[in-house]
Amino acid sequence: MATYTFYKYQGAGNDFIVIDNRNLLFDRDDIDLVRRLCDRRFGIGADGLMLLQNVDGYDFEMVYFNADGREGSMCGNGGRCIVAFAKDQAIIDKATDFLAVDGQHHAEIDGRRDYVSLQMIDVDAIDRDADAYVLDTGSPHYVATVEGLANFPVIAEGRRVRNSERYQAEGINVNFVEAEGAGYFVRTYERGVEDETLACGTGATAVAIAMAAHEGKNGTLTIPIRVAGGNLTIRFQKDGARFTDVFLEGPAKYVFKGEITV
User: Fold this and answer.
1) HEC assignment per residue over 162-198
2) What average pLDDT is seen over the chain?
3) 38 annotated active-site
4) Which of 24, 150, 153, 225 is the most buried (most CB within 10 A)?
5) Of the listed 200, 206, 211, 213, which one is catalytic?
6) pLDDT tens-digit series, residues 231-243
7) Which domains does the chain have, with CATH numbers?
8) Is 75 a known active-site residue?
């Protein structure tokens, strides 16, 4: 048996187990262990698990796992939460440069209100799948506009798209979006979780970028996104088909600390 100290964080309802693995005692290849810890009935419960590790040239490395136990692509809300964790552990102060699976990320944190601004990767290409937009914001996303999103069958339709012939092998996160005031309301079906989550950071980013393309907007843009778990803000520079200086902003809050023996 082994005992692990863990921390729970959440960003707009997207919740994560965070483990300080600078001592490398947690086996990142143990898929079953990660899956058990993320299980909401038999484990701690989370949308994903993150390890904070040392890496040369950066403040830390973020290693992210989906709830199915497999190492995943970039998680935006997870990135914001691990920055908050690094701040709480005095690893960083107000700003950081860390390494994730999709490369270097810069982030800044306002500790007074648990608010993290995380720089995402640039986006140079947006594809189409019929009326939907398909793009990569660190993770692959499908973005479709719908009406009546509050009552839309997100799980059924998200599962259908995610397991369609085109996307089944690699999987894709499926976002449904509806215009709302100056921004958008978004609901997301996440691969790896295989369910709707209360928020998805890379998904909110993908929606903001897709909608800017859809509406032909250019220049410096700030787009509010409402998700089931709260509110996020996406800002970026759009020049034609190129999106740069992309930032995902929102709350990242400590929930609790515990120990688990497995």
Assistant:
1) HCCCCCCCCCCEEEEEEEECCEEEEEEEECCCCEEEC
2) 97
3) no
4) 225
5) 200
6) 999 999 999 999 9
7) 3-119+252-261 (3.10.310.10), 127-249 (3.10.310.10)
8) yes
